[in-house]
Amino acid sequence: MLQGVRHIKAFVAVARLGSFTRAAAEVNVSQPALTVQIRQLETSLGVRLFDRNKRQVVLTQAGRDLLPALQRVLSELDAVMSASHDLAGLRRGSVSIATLPSVAAGLLPTAIRRFMTDHPNIDVKVQDVVAEHIVKLVKAEEVDFGIGSRVGADRDVEITDFLSDRMCAFLPQDHPLADRRPLLLKDVAAFPLILTARGTSVRTLVERALEKEGLEVSITCEANYMSTAVGMVRAGLGVSILPESAIEAASCEGMRIEPIRTPGLTRKIGLIRKSNRSLSPAAERFVQLLTELSWEPLAHFANPGIRAKKREPLNDAQHRS
């Protein structure tokens, strides 16, 4: 392919300059080498391109007919090379992400702001969906990568954990559990519960913890989104078990949010990629930025690679800040 391009460039240069000597200097080859390239191109095309004598070089009719098409080939190739360099240099492109709503409301806006400051010509598209749908979008290659939780073994995706999210009880301000210390899962399970829908990462985690503790519960309501569950708590329909990051997804004013101290109630959040697929330069840089951000102090999230520090109970004043 590259040899063909050199031959076409040689032809266009001779046609424009009317001289093998000047064309050879322009394309940076010797005149004999340029002459060989023209002859090889003529052989390949099956037509004579130039009539030449000691005084002049002129295009044949076939050469005149082919010149515009070959000029377009070079122009389009230049455009392809320019676009490729722009993509590699992060001067253009797009990043598409499927993410949990809690991440979309919390960490992701900070990441997008930093990314767009450095790369203003790259579009960032976000789909906030439940964990199960994130994996489907990644596998279908409808997004570059996902940010979500494991929903089961799947060889078609690779998941790299980079955040953790502790589970909390979301309570009305005057609930009997509001001042319970430490608050355990068995305490919360004694009250009517509002849980996220089956198939969500939160529901899976809660059900596993309940089974491990041998607890039976009464479920009064289910919701696909954490913001809906929070609204149900505010309406007095029950108590909800949600990750701390739900604070970013819904207004929690007038509520109490207490961490549940039962072991195992921490949701792991990972970067989800399709197995054996390379990311675009823009998507690769965005993943790198997310990883860098995960090592900074984050509200309502923790990096599992950092030794956990004791985190204070949440209170209503913090929710309003």
UniProtKB/TrEMBL annotation:
The keyword Cytoplasm is annotated on this UniProt entry: no
Ranges of residues in domain HTH lysR-type: 1-60
Keyword hit for Acetylation: no
Superkingdom per UniProt: Bacteria
Keyword entries, A-Z: DNA-binding, Plasmid, Transcription, Transcription regulation
Family as reported in the entry's similarity comment: Belongs to the LysR transcriptional regulatory family.
Protein name, UniProt field: LysR family transcriptional regulator
Organism: Azospirillum humicireducens
